[in-house]
């Protein structure tokens, strides 16, 4: 199995340790991982603001970088959802369709493709609550949605339950958006901040020491809100916990 590692631009800029943990975690399971050095943004910010045509060159570059891999794996449900479901600007050639179909978010790759049943190196003796990015939840179906009457499941929780010492706790409104929303936090700053504060307070009330997610973008926004509210909650990407981070 040959995997192309897709590290979103904001992860590369603000949370490179998440990309490193993702690489190390995949290699622990014997996956051959390549990192195409010419990769840039996947084009999501432009598409989110309605500039679909302007994202064409960026999306075409993504396809050139990642064509030919068995899978493309990235630690971001938001970006992966964009590649899989909104990559509409380029001509839909065989290469484009294959890249779209083979791109997976890290948690679903571990859960659905590798079918991981243990993380023997991982120990995290803390109370942890989970945040599911909206795109990962409703676009990639990484977990069931509480607003729907359907069988409850959670791929991230299935993986986290395999980590020694980790105690999962729930918040009052687990599926509520944190307000980041990419460019939404720029154009609707006040609304975004209030939503993030509500989320941070809910997380703190749960008694969780840490909040984890498969999206650093949401965690970055929530952590900023928590710090401004002087809340003690800490934030960590799920790749770091699964790769053996202790704190």
From TrEMBL:
Q: Which residues form a coiled coil?
A: none
Its Gene Ontology molecular function terms?
oxidoreductase activity
* Example of a GO cellular component annotation carried by this entry: cytosol
Cysteine-rich domain span = 3-83, 128-221
Q: What is this protein called?
A: Glycolate oxidase
């Amino acid at each position: 199995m040959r995997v192309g590692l897709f590290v979103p631009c904001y992860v590369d800029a603000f949370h490179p340790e998440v990309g490193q943990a993702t690489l190390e975690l995949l290699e622990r399971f014997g996956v051959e991982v390549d990192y195409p050095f010419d990769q840039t943004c996947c084009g999501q910010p432009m598409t989110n603001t309605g500039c679909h045509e302007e994202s064409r060159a960026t999306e075409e570059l993504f396809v050139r970088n990642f064509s030919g891999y068995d899978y493309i794996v990235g630690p971001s449900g938001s970006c992966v959802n964009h590649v899989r479901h909104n990559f509409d600007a380029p001509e839909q050639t065989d290469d484009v369709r294959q890249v779209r179909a083979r791109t997976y978010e890290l948690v679903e790759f571990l859960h659905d493709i590798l079918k991981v049943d243990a993380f023997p190196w991982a120990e995290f003796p803390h109370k942890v609550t989970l945040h599911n990015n909206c795109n990962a939840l409703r676009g990639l179906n990484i977990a069931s949605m509480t607003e729907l009457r359907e069988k409850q499941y959670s791929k991230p929780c299935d993986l986290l339950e395999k980590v020694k010492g980790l105690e999962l706790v729930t918040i009052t409104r687990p599926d509520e958006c944190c307000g980041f929303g990419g460019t939404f936090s720029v154009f609707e700053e006040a609304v975004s901040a209030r939503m993030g504060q509500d989320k941070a307070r809910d997380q703190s009330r749960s008694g969780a020491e840490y909040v984890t997610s498969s999206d650093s973008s949401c965690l970055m926004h929530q952590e900023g809100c928590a710090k401004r509210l002087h809340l003690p909650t800490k934030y960590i990407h799920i790749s770091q916990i699964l790769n053996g981070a202790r704190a």
